[in-house]
Amino acid sequence: MLKLAILGFLHDRPLHGYELRRHLAALTGHVRPISDGTLYPAIKRLEAEGLLVRATEPGAAAAPRHTLRLTDAGRAALLDRLRSPDELDVSNENRWFTLLAFLRHLDGEPAAQAAVLRRRLAFLNEPASFFYDGDRPVGAEEVADPFRRGMLLIARATTTAELDWLHATLAELDAAA
Amino acid sequence: MLKLAILGFLHDRPLHGYELRRHLAALTGHVRPISDGTLYPAIKRLEAEGLLVRATEPGAAAAPRHTLRLTDAGRAALLDRLRSPDELDVSNENRWFTLLAFLRHLDGEPAAQAAVLRRRLAFLNEPASFFYDGDRPVGAEEVADPFRRGMLLIARATTTAELDWLHATLAELDAAA
DNA sequence: AGACCATACCTCGATGCCGAGGTATAACAA
DNA sequence: TTGTTATACCTCGGCATCGAGGTATGGTCT
């Protein structure tokens, strides 16, 4: 997820680590702020994989910066990941949102974008709950516990909103394709 | 989060590992199914901490089971964690939902439950977005990218639903206290 | 009888993440 | 001048997690 986000932000324009950190904090910070000890090793891994290059530049405000720039391989890796997300990217809320944040980078390919959205649609249409009575998912109305009822109500509202948006956006994408 | 969930499920009744696994799969499985290699070491850690005890029983259907039972220390640790969740438990969606799933275990203490909900309320009332124009959060209406607009619309729907539920539930809890 | 599956538990290496710490520069305030 | 803050990067130990593998039992199907 971190890898995807780094590649996604750098696709827009080169950034140095500190800027990247702020972008990441906005995108995923409300969930869990990424720490320096996570970010910088991740950058190094991406560099070792040849997906980005670092160029040292005199620091504008302070210490020298390492400006990060995607390579062609990096750009290709990003687009690949966007075209063919793995199951967890589709099912996990945080990963899915990260993917959504950069799906526009597939801009020449409305059919590919639509295919990704359709995978999410399929996932959301699978019956799922937090609690089961045997194999049967338990709905909000049956739950006496107000806290668990809240979970189900909130999850339902989220799913409804997402389905609305998915259907509307798919219609647009299909019209464009 | 895993620790909280294990303690939470065992507070209801003793379970063996395999049952626990199925409960956890329902609760967090849509996000990320926990693997055996995560669950069993986690159980052992909790046992080492003295929060649960294991009793070997002949297996009903197959191999012998290790029935897991909370100790008094385990029960106390769970209630403590529920009363005083750390910041991440409040801000991170997954952790918050895990906490909600077991908040009813604080049943004699409506004031404590309300205090926890109020912390979430405070968190949700902080202005936050995925994207910023300088320091100003960018709203859904300003975003041209349909995918990022979707993120913001879905997040807003979720927040609205959660706020409605929070206010209603707080009113009930305050009446009970 | 043999094959197969669901139940039930466990280990181990690899990996990624966290937090705490460190280094350094430049601007500004006390 | 000294301290503080913001910028900017890095390392390292420790730990939780994952995935792939293994062991074993009992029931069902053929």
List its traits:
homodimer; 177 residues; mainly alpha; DNA-binding
Fold and architecture overview:
Chain A has helices at 2-12, 17-28, 36-48, 72-83, 87-91, 93-102, 110-125, 146-176; strands at residues 15-16, 52-57, 65-70, 132-133, 136-137. With 177 residues, chain A is mainly alpha-helical. In chain A, strands 1-3-2 form a 3-stranded antiparallel β-sheet. In chain A, a hairpin with a 2-residue loop joins strand 4 and strand 5 (136-137). In chain A, helix 1 packs across helix 4, helix 1 runs parallel beside helix 6 and helix 7 (110-125) packs antiparallel against helix 8 (146-176). The two termini of chain A are 28 Å apart. In chain A, 27% of the residues are buried. The model of chain A has no long low-confidence stretch (mean pLDDT 91). Chain A binds chain B through residues 26-27, 30-32, 88, 91-94, 97, 100-101, 103-104, 113, 128-132, 145-148, 150-151, 153-154, 156-158, 160-162, 165-166, 169, 172, and chain B through 26-27, 30-32, 88, 91-94, 97, 100-101, 103-104, 113, 128-132, 145-148, 150-151, 153-154, 156-158, 160-162, 165-166, 169, 172. The first copy, chain A, binds a DNA duplex (30 and 30 nucleotides) through residues 2, 16-18, 21, 34-38, 40-42, 44-45, 59-66.
